C-alpha cells in the first residue's frame, strides 16, 4: 500500500470516479422516466417496478463473481467492460417498443453497473495510503452520486424535449466515452509495484468462504443492507412519483428536490469518512444512528395527516441523503477484516446487502400500489401505505446488525484485542478526562 499521495493518484481516482458517476446515471435513468415508460410500453406500477427489480437482481447476483474477477484481472478491464455493457443496454432501451425488450435492456445495464463500484473501490488502496482510504472511499461514493443529478435534470429535459430514443441514445454515448477515458487514464497500480500473483479458482472460492464467514464482513453486509435501501428506493424509482402523483408537486420541483438529496451527500460523506477514520472502533454506532434517524423521519412523514409540509419533506430528503455515506462504512469493515488479496470478494459480499434490500422493497411497493389502485390512479394514502413495507427490512437489518457486531467484537477479544466499552461508558470517561484538564 502506498505511503503518500501523488497527483497521479488523484488523476487515476478521478477518472475511475467519473466512470462510477456515469454508472449511477445509467442506473437511475429510469427514475424520471416512470410516466413516459408506462405510456410507451402500456404497463402498470408492478411491471414498471419489475424493470428496476430485475436490474438490481442482476446487480446483486453479480457482486460476488465480480469481486472475484476484479481480484484476478484488475479494475481497469472490468471498468471498461462495465461501461460498454451499460452503453449497449441503453441503446437497447432507446430502441425498445415492448416491455420484454425494455426488461432485457435494464438487465444489461445492471450487469455493467455491477462491475463498476467494486472496481473503483479496488483502485483506492492501490493508490492511496491506509490513513486516507476511509475518506477517499466516502468521496468516491459522493462524487459518484453526481451522476444522479444528470439523470434527474438533463435526462428529464431530454425526455420532455427530443424524446425517448434520443435521450437514451445520448446516455449510451456517455457510456462509450467513459470506457475510452478509463482505457486512457486508469491503471490498476502505480508504476514499479508488482502485480499480485493471480490465485486459482479453488483458492478464490476458499477466500470467498473465509470472507463471508468472518463476522466483520457480515457486519459490513448488514450495515450496507440497513442504511442504503430506503434512500436508493426513493431515488431510483418511487420518490419521483410519490412527490408528483402523491403530493401533487410539479415535475420541476420534484426533480429539484431529488437534486437537493444528491447534493447533500457530499456534505455528509466527508464527515462520516473522518469519523470512521478517527474512531474505527465506533463505526457501527454511526450506522445505528443513521438507521434510527431514517426510521424516525419516515415515521413522522407517514403519520402526518394529509399532505406532508415541504420543510418536512426536505428534512426527509436530507436524512435519506446519508444512505450513500453510511452504506460506504460497510466497505470499511470489509477492508479492516480482510487481506488485500480478497478485498474484491469481501466488497462484493457487502455491496450485495443494500441492493438486495432495495430490489425487495421496490418490487413490494409496486405490488402494494397496484393492489391499492389497479387503475394506476395512486393517491397519497396509497403511497404512504406502500412505503410502510420498509419497516420489515429495517427491523431485520437492526437485529442482524446487532448480532454481527456482537460476534465481531467477541472475535476481536479472542484475537487479543482490548474489550470495547459500551458507548455510554466511553462518553462518560471522555467527559471525566475533559473535566480534569
Automatic annotation (TrEMBL):
> Can you say where in the cell this protein is located?
Cell membrane
Question: Can you give the residue ranges of the Major facilitator superfamily (MFS) profile domain?
Answer: 12-409
InterPro entries in the cross-refs: MFS (IPR011701), MFS_dom (IPR020846), MFS_trans_sf (IPR036259)
| Membrane-spanning parts | 43-70, 77-97, 167-186, 219-240, 252-273, 285-304, 310-331, 343-369, 381-403
Topology class, membrane: Multi-pass membrane protein
Q: Main localisation, per the record?
A: membrane
Statement: the UniProt record of this protein carries the keyword Cell membrane: no
Q: Does the keyword Transmembrane helix apply?
A: yes
Which SUPFAM superfamilies does this UniProt record tie to the protein?
MFS general substrate transporter (SSF103473)
Q: What keywords are annotated for this sequence in UniProt?
A: Membrane, Transmembrane, Transmembrane helix, Transport
Superkingdom of the organism of origin: Bacteria
What PANTHER family is this protein classified in? MAJOR FACILITATOR SUPERFAMILY MULTIDRUG TRANSPORTER MFSC
Q: What is this protein called?
A: MFS family permease
Q: Which organism is it from?
A: Microlunatus capsulatus
Amino acid at each position: 500500500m502506498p505511503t503518500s499521495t501523488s497527483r497521479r493518484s488523484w488523476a487515476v481516482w478521478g477518472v475511475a470516479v467519473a466512470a462510477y458517476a456515469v454508472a449511477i446515471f445509467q442506473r437511475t435513468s429510469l427514475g424520471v422516466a416512470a410516466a413516459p415508460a408506462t405510456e410507451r410500453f402500456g404497463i402498470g406500477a408492478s411491471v414498471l417496478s419489475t424493470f428496476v427489480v430485475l436490474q438490481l437482481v442482476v446487480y446483486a447476483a453479480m457482486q460476488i463473481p465480480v469481486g472475484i474477477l476484479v481480484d484476478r484481472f484488475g479494475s481497469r478491464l472490468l471498468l471498461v467492460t462495465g461501461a460498454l455493457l451499460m452503453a449497449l443496454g441503453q441503446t437497447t432501451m432507446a430502441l425498445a417498443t415492448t416491455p420484454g425488450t425494455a426488461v432485457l435492456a435494464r438487465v444489461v445495464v445492471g450487469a455493467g453497473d455491477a462491475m463498476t463500484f467494486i472496481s473503483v473501490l479496488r483502485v483506492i488502496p492501490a493508490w492511496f495510503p491506509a490513513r486516507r482510504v476511509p475518506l477517499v472511499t466516502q468521496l468516491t461514493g459522493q462524487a459518484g452520486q453526481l451522476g444522479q443529478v444528470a439523470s434527474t435534470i438533463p435526462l428529464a429535459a431530454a425526455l420532455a424535449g427530443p424524446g425517448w430514443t434520443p435521450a437514451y441514445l445520448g446516455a449510451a454515448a456517455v457510456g462509450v466515452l467513459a470506457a475510452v477515458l478509463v482505457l486512457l487514464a486508469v491503471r490498476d497500480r502505480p508504476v514499479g509495484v508488482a502485480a499480485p500473483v493471480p490465485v486459482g479458482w479453488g483458492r478464490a472460492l476458499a477466500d470467498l468462504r473465509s470472507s463471508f464467514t468472518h463476522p466483520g464482513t457480515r457486519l459490513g453486509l448488514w450495515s450496507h443492507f440497513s442504511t442504503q435501501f430506503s434512500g436508493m428506493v426513493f431515488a431510483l424509482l418511487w420518490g419521483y412519483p410519490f412527490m408528483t402523483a402523491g403530493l401533487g408537486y410539479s415535475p420541476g420541483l420534484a426533480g429539484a428536490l431529488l437534486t437537493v438529496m444528491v447534493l447533500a451527500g457530499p456534505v455528509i460523506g466527508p464527515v462520516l469518512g473522518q469519523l470512521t477514520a478517527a474512531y474505527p472502533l465506533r463505526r457501527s454506532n454511526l450506522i445505528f444512528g443513521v438507521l434510527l434517524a431514517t426510521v424516525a423521519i419516515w415515521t413522522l412523514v407517514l403519520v402526518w395527516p394529509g399532505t406532508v409540509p415541504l420543510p418536512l419533506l426536505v428534512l426527509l430528503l436530507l436524512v435519506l441523503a446519508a444512505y450513500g455515506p453510511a452504506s460506504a462504512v460497510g466497505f470499511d469493515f470489509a477492508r479492516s477484516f480482510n487481506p488485500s488479496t480478497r478485498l474484491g470478494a469481501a466488497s462484493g459480499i457487502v455491496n450485495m446487502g443494500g441492493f438486495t434490500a432495495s430490489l425487495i422493497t421496490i418490487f413490494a411497493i409496486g405490488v402494494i400500489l397496484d393492489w391499492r389502485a389497479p387503475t394506476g390512479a395512486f393517491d397519497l394514502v396509497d403511497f404512504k401505505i406502500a412505503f410502510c413495507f420498509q419497516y420489515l427490512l429495517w427491523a431485520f437489518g437492526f437485529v442482524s446488525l446487532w448480532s454481527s457486531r456482537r460476534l465481531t467484537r467477541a472475535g476481536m477479544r479472542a484475537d487479543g484485542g482490548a474489550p470495547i466499552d459500551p458507548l455510554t461508558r466511553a462518553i462518560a470517561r471522555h467527559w471525566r478526562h475533559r473535566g480534569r484538564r
